[in-house]
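Backbone shape codes:
===
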Amino acid sequence: MITKVLMPKLSEAMETGKVIQWLKREGEAVKGGDIIAEIETDKANVEIEAFGSGLLRKILVGPGGEVPVGELIGVIADPSDDISSMRAAAPPKPPAAALAAAGPSSVGAVPAMESYQSAPATTRVVPMTPAPVLATAPATARLKASPLARKIASQSGVDLRLLQGSGPGGRIVRRDVESALAAPSPAAEAPRPAAAPAAAARPAFVIPPRPGVEYEDVALSPMRAIIAKRMPLSKAPVPHFYVTSEVAMDRAVALRAELNALEGQPKVSVTDLIIKACALALIKNPGVNASLLGQAIRVHHRAHIGIAVALEHGLITPVLRDVDAKPLVQIAVESRDLAERARGGKLRAQELSGATFSISNLGMFDVDEFSAIINPPEGAILAVGSVVEKPVVDKGEIRVGRRMKLTISCDHRVMDGAMGARFLQDVKRLLEEPLRLLV
């Protein structure tokens, strides 16, 4: 039996995907469910599974190859199957070629980094890279580098334009980047003060100050580019409305402390409590667990919750499925695993889509409250603020209480204010009576 391995569509906005590596070799036996390849999308690196068993007879798109969604990249078949008709798709036209073919009236893509004609003569564009470690490549040369080399260079701050590739056709490969990292730079030979611990821990996306430079243009990462493309498609056409509620978290915090004190048990976070409360409230309020599909509203009867995870160059929302049917401890284990694999670029294809509702928690950044943007086709998203201590009135007396603000953003085409308010009311009650989360 022949099984086609196709470039998967891992998000609504995904149009093409790039093969990072094949984890099985041609001629190697494959079983259904085996991880066979790693794909780079605009959001993450994703492992894809085989949907059939047999031999990996043919790899049609090798590492670094980029093809449109749905195109054939490999073939799994029995030795006796005829696969001679299986062919790879033609590679997509590069942007420059596509622009030339479209004619002079087409609008071209904005360059990743450019110096504006209106800028003062003292202003210059500064690439976000460390001091050169090798001779500068000609400015007109087209940069050729493998996806893995690009990833390592991005994480370590190496400027690929300064490297000489040792791969086929001068392509920069992993060993070139590693060699550049290992080679001492001229600046490293001169003694200099040790960096402060805070500077060493600074994330790569924090732009350091550059005295004497008025401004600089930083190239969009692929993830930030898709966010820039997708967010106006959500915020502009989707009529958002917002409902905010303050939750007494005293009992939830106490329950969490008791659960985390149990020896040998997984640690439970405040986010885990909120995920479980939202899942139960979604089942009770299916109108919030819904999305608009043309002339119909699709109401979901299972709670698949997207959990927003901040990455170095953007945001990703992996999906935790069937949360309403899972105990709190299992949610804690799976949500932590999902977030760690999201940061490491090791998500599975099915974990990137299919959410019916999303949660974005900025409480760890000392954010009191905020409003999140809905991720279509979902009908709502919950924004979570910090748990803060504040004076509260309890039975006529003032005491210190723990409070947290929740704001739900709703698609007014799918639901009305009362529906969103009832959902938030149920989430509030579950968190204020947290033993219900354990039943």
Notes: The domain at 146-184 is CATH 4.10.320.10 (Dihydrolipoamide Transferase). The chain has three domains: 3-77, 146-184, 235-438.
